[in-house]
Amino acid sequence: MACLWDRKEIITVSGFRSLYCMDSSVEEYTAFKEKVSRTVYFDNLSPQVTESVIRTALDQFASVKKVKFIPNYTGPSTLPQCALVELDSAKKAKEIVSMAEHYFFMMSGMPRPVRARPAVIEMFDDRPVKPNRKMKVRWLEPSDPDFKVAKELKNLTRRHTVEIEYMHKLLLEEEEKLGKQQEETLKVHYKKFKMIDTIMADKSAHRLARKYNVPVADD
After folding, report:
1. Which end of the chain is less crowded, N or C, counting CB atoms within 10 A of the terminal residue's CB?
2. DSSP E strands: which ranges in 96-146?
3. Distance from the first to the final alpha carbon of the chain
4. Quick one: what percent of the chain has pLDDT higher than 70?
5. Around Cβ 173, how many Cβ atoms within 10 Å?
């Protein structure tokens, strides 16, 4: 079992293997926590959304310092994206989260509005090690009382993987359905505006206005 960070030393005592990771300074960890407080987690982003799209959408509310997309290693590339967006202040981050909760926030024509919530430490793969943190790892034999618990956790993880894949499938079907509905609505509105332009161009609207004594503007 490997540590996520650089290991300082490995000590084996009474069957326990202790991993000591390179500690970060208190100042470094405090600065990281401040960064987390001013970062917003966005999901349900269209696959066509890029960093420039996010910056353009959020620049009207706050100054965007950094955009980091979270890679999707398990699902198809057509799934909605997720991103961590660092802003210039924690106050602005809270305001954007509140705005996304109360109003529809669309990006790049996605049928479903973008979701936003405050970022948490576990979302960052480059997070520093908490000062004085110590990890202990030990091998479990089948006769160990905790072996059954570990096996159940393993099976639960596999079940969650299957459930997530199924939810992704339903999500894609729903997004496709919403996209078709949005396309049909757009076509209907386009036909209406085209008809209005036509009757205005051939003066049909003006003739009807004179017949029914209704004022109509030339523009």
Report:
1. C
2. 115-118, 135-137
3. 73
4. 83
5. 10
